Amino acid sequence: MTVGYIQACAKGTIMHFVSRCLRPLDIRWTCDIDKPSRMSTSGAAFSSDGGEVIQRKLETEQKLKTCGDINTLYEIQRCVHFINSNKFQRVALQFPDSLLPDSVAIVTELGKQTDSQCYVLGDTSYGSCCVDEVAAQHVKADSIIHFGRTCLSPTRRLPVLYVFGQQHIDVEHCFSSFQQLLPDSDSDVIVLHDLVFAHAIDLLTDKINEKYPNVKISEIKYPTSRNNQDEILSSKSPGYEDASVVEDEQQTISKFGRQFTLSSRKNIRDYTMFYIGGESLTLTNLMMTFNRCQFYTYDPETRTGRQETVNVNRALMKRFYMIERAKDAQVIGIVAGTLGVADYLQVISRLKEMIKKAGKKSYTFVMGKVNVAKMANFSEVDVYVLVACPENTLIDSTEFYKPIVTPFEMELACNQAREWTGDYETDFRQMLPGGKNYKDLPNSLQDVQTDMSLITGAMRNIGGGEESYLVETGSLVKRDDVLTLATKHTTAGEFLASRSWQGLEQKLGETPVVEAVEGQRGIAAGYANEKQEEQE
C-alpha cells in the first residue's frame, strides 16, 4: 500500500512520500526548496494514518502589494485608457512568472474600470520577453498588454501595450557610483538601462548632464504595431528599425528598443557604455553587439557598480567555433523559436534557400520552448539554427547533444558573400533586404568553395547546391577519392538507413496472422496463473 501527501507552503513545495512495504521499515523522502533532499527512517511513522498531515492548516504569506501600489507600479490608468479609447473587448494580459502573483489584483482593477474581458497568459509559448500573439489568439483577443521586461521585438498581428513596471532604484547612489567609475567629466559615455528603471531615468539624466556634458542618455523606442496610438508608439520614435540615420551632422542609432544620438564625427567605438541593471540576457546582448566598447554596470538591487571584465573576445571566439561547426554540418535543423516576432517566416525562407545553395539539407522544427531532451530526439541533425528574438537567440549549447547557432552565424557559414569581421548581429531582421547587414546570396548554384575544416582537418565543399550531385544524363560519376575522406549523409533518410538499429521491425507479410488470445492477469509480483501453479 502506498500513500502520498503533497503540501504547498509559502517557502516552496514540500512533498512527503510514505511507502509501506512488507519489511518493517518506513522510508520518508522530504524535498524542500530551502533545504537539501534527505532521507530519514523511523518506525514511529509506520503506524501513522496521515490524518495529521491532512488536517494541517497552511500558513501562506501575503506578498501582494496594496491597491495603491498596484495602480502605480503597473500603470493601471494607462491600461484603462488603452482599453477604453480603442474599445477593446477581449484583452490578453501577459505576465512573466515573477509577476503572476499580482495578476489577480490587476484583473480586478481593470474589471472595475472597463467593460472588457481580460485573460491572463501565464505560460508563454516561448520566451516571456516576447509578445505571445499565438496564445492571445487562442482566446480570440483583440489586444495584448505585456507586463514586465521585454525585448521590444516588433509584432504584426495585434496591437500591444507595454507596461514595464517600476522597480526601485536609489538615484543618488547610482549617480555616486557613476562618478566613482567615470571620474573624468569629459568622458564620452552612453547610458543604457533596464526597462524596469525607465521611470527614474529623467531624474538621473538631470544629475548627469550638470557635470557630464558629453554623456548620451538612451531613450526607449517602442516597436510599431497595428494600432499606432500614442500609448503604443512613442511620439519621439517615428518607426522601429534598428539602424543608423545621419541628419544635420548627427547620427541616430537604434538598437534593441534603445535609441541615442551621437555626433557624426565620432564613432560608437569611441564611447564607453554604462548600463543600469543586473546581469541579464539584455546586458549580454548589448555587450556582444557593442563588443568594441568598454562596459560599466550598476545593479540597483545590490547597489554595486563595477567594470565588466567578461572577456568578450573569448565569447566571440566561442561563437566562431560554432560557425566552423556549421560549416562542417551537412544536415541543418531550423528551429522556430518564435511565432510572434515580425518577419520570422521570411528569415526561415531565406535560411532554407541559403542552406540549399550551400549544398546542405535542412529540416524545419516547431517545438515550443527549447530544451535538451527535445533537441536530442533528432540525432541525424548536425547543427541547429534557432530563429528567435535577439535576447533568446544566444544559447549556450554546452549541454545540448548538437550545437545551436544563430541565423547570423549560419549565414557566415553558408553565404560566401559574408565575411567574419568581429562585428556581431543578434537581430535576424537586419539580415533581410533593407537591413543594414543584408548580403545578397550567390546567384549561381555551381560555385563551389573548397577549404579545410579547422575542427576536423578534413577538406569540405561549400556551395554547389543539391543539383551538383546529379548528372543530366543520369549516368554514374566516378567518386573523387582525393577530396572525399569519409561518407556523409545529406538527408535524414540516408542517416536512418545507415544505422544498425532502425526501430521495431514490422516484417509486414512475414508474420502469420493469429487470433487474439487472453494475456496475463494480475500484477508483476504474481500473475493469476503463477499463483495457481504455486498452489498445485
How does this model look, in words?
The chain has 536 residues and is of the alpha/beta class. It has helices spanning 51-55, 67-73, 76-86, 103-113, 133-138, 171-181, 201-211, 281-289, 312-328, 344-357, 372-375, 407-414, 492-498, 528-535, and strands at residues 2-9, 12-19, 26-32, 35-42, 90-94, 117-121, 143-147, 160-163, 189-193, 215-217, 219-220, 244-247, 250-255, 258-263, 272-276, 295-299, 304-307, 331-336, 361-365, 383-387, 404-405, 448-452, 459-463, 522-523, 526-527. The strands form 7 sheets. The chain has a 5-stranded mixed beta sheet, with helices on one face. Helix 6 (171-181) runs parallel beside helix 7 and helix 9 crosses helix 12.
Q: Helix and strand layout, with pairings?
A:
Elements (H helix, E strand, L loop, with lengths): L1 E8 L2 E8 L6 E7 L2 E8 L8 H5 L11 H7 L2 H11 L3 E5 L8 H11 L3 E5 L11 H6 L4 E5 L12 E4 L7 H11 L7 E5 L7 H11 L3 E3 L1 E2 L23 E4 L2 E6 L2 E6 L8 E5 L4 H9 L5 E5 L4 E4 L4 H17 L2 E6 L7 H14 L3 E5 L6 H4 L7 E5 L16 E2 L1 H8 L33 E5 L6 E5 L28 H7 L23 E2 L2 E2 H8 L1
Helix pairs in contact: 6-7, 9-12, 10-12
